[in-house]
């Protein structure tokens, strides 16, 4: 996840096991926005750190996990330090990583060591922690669902219920936690829900309208088995089975599977369960035969993972 430095800076870019990775241009933009919030418009200022710490002072700080979880967002560390160093006109700290995105980490584990101008370390601290803690919280929540679904053949999906401006980071964090991204936005997959059906007049009319306008996959939401069959007849590519009790869900899955490969229905229709999903019933929902469980809470309700930046005492 390297970015092109404005000058030679002793920064070690963090490799990531998460594919696809974050777009470096997106990372740069997100960090710039976060720093502007914290420091004011570029170059900005930190009136405390710049007053109390000489620009010449150097030191080392450790990025430390205060609790166990799954780490994500380390890819923003070098970019944050680079931008802060540029704003202050100081060298960027060197970074040694001891973990990579997607790793399961223990409480007290040192994730990275940062060595360089103390002003840069302190000015970058909150932005760096806000982004990595948020991403790691999402990855940790996702990993819990992935563990619960292990062996079922079903995957946990995220939704569009993301923090404005941080969707790319949060969906990246879902991947770090062994989850799967559903759609990035309204532009890449059509999802026909009840209001679309009302507006179009019927499921068939809504599907036909999408097909006529755009070359995208079409998903249809169904609350009942009857609605699911109607969506199949209308030519849906996959179905969103919403708020179904497990027995109804299982019956709907069986009915859909029985139609696969017949009467123009694809050989495999992808099925997604959503609504009223909790971790304690995740496995029983998966065992009903769905391909996916979509969980908005992965991004809208995951608490941060508590990370800290500890400056080492001067020797």
TrEMBL record:
<comment type="similarity">
    <text>Belongs to the NadC/ModD family.</text>
</comment>
<dbReference type="InterPro" id="IPR022412">
    <property type="entry name" value="Quinolinate_PRibosylTrfase_N"/>
</dbReference>
<keyword id="KW-0808">Transferase</keyword>
<feature type="domain" description="Quinolinate phosphoribosyl transferase N-terminal">
    <location>
        <begin position="46"/>
        <end position="136"/>
    </location>
</feature>
<dbReference type="InterPro" id="IPR004393">
    <property type="entry name" value="NadC"/>
</dbReference>
<comment type="function">
    <text>Involved in the catabolism of quinolinic acid (QA).</text>
</comment>
<dbReference type="InterPro" id="IPR036068">
    <property type="entry name" value="Nicotinate_pribotase-like_C"/>
</dbReference>
<dbReference type="InterPro" id="IPR027277">
    <property type="entry name" value="NadC/ModD"/>
</dbReference>
<keyword id="KW-0328">Glycosyltransferase</keyword>
<comment type="pathway">
    <text>Cofactor biosynthesis; NAD(+) biosynthesis; nicotinate D-ribonucleotide from quinolinate: step 1/1.</text>
</comment>
<dbReference type="InterPro" id="IPR037128">
    <property type="entry name" value="Quinolinate_PRibosylTase_N_sf"/>
</dbReference>
<feature type="domain" description="Quinolinate phosphoribosyl transferase C-terminal">
    <location>
        <begin position="138"/>
        <end position="310"/>
    </location>
</feature>
<dbReference type="InterPro" id="IPR002638">
    <property type="entry name" value="Quinolinate_PRibosylTrfase_C"/>
</dbReference>
<dbReference type="InterPro" id="IPR013785">
    <property type="entry name" value="Aldolase_TIM"/>
</dbReference>
<protein>
    <recommendedName>
        <fullName>nicotinate-nucleotide diphosphorylase (carboxylating)</fullName>
        <ecNumber>2.4.2.19</ecNumber>
    </recommendedName>
</protein>
<dbReference type="Pfam" id="PF02749">
    <property type="entry name" value="QRPTase_N"/>
</dbReference>
<dbReference type="Pfam" id="PF01729">
    <property type="entry name" value="QRPTase_C"/>
</dbReference>
<keyword id="KW-0662">Pyridine nucleotide biosynthesis</keyword>
């Amino acid at each position: 996840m390297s970015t092109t430095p404005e000058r030679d800076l002793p920064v070690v870019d963090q490799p990531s096991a998460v594919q696809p990775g974050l777009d470096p241009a997106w990372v740069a933009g997100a960090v710039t926005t976060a720093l502007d919030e914290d420091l004011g418009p570029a170059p900005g200022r930190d009136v405390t750190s710049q007053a109390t710490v000489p620009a010449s002072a150097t030191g080392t700080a450790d990025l430390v996990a205060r609790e166990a979880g799954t780490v994500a967002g380390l890819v923003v560390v070098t970019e944050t330090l680079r931008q802060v160093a540029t704003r202050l006109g100081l060298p960027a700290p060197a970074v040694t990583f001891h973990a990579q995105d997607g790793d399961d980490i223990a409480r007290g584990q040192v994730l990275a060591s940062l060595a360089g101008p103390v002003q840069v370390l302190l000015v970058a601290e909150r932005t760096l922690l806000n982004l990595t803690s948020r991403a790691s919280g999402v990855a940790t929540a996702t990993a819990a669902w992935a563990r619960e679904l292990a062996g079922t053949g079903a995957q946990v999906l995220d939704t569009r219920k993301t923090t404005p401006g941080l969707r790319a980071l949060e969906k990246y964090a879902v991947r770090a936690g062994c989850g799967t991204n559903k759609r990035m936005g309204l532009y890449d997959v059509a999802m026909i829900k009840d209001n679309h059906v009302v507006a179009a007049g019927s499921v068939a009319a809504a599907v036909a309208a999408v097909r006529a306008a755009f070359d995208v996959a079409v998903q249809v939401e169904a609350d009942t088995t009857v609605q699911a069959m109607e969506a199949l007849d209308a030519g849906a590519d996959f179905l969103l089975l919403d708020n179904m009790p497990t027995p109804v869900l299982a019956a709907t899955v069986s009915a859909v599977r029985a139609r696969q490969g017949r009467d123009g229905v694809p050989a495999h229709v992808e099925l997604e369960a959503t609504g009223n999903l909790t971790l304690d019933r995740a496995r029983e929902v998966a065992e009903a035969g769905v391909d996916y469980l979509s969980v908005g809470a992965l991004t809208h309700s995951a608490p941060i993972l508590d990370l800290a930046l500890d400056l080492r005492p001067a020797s």
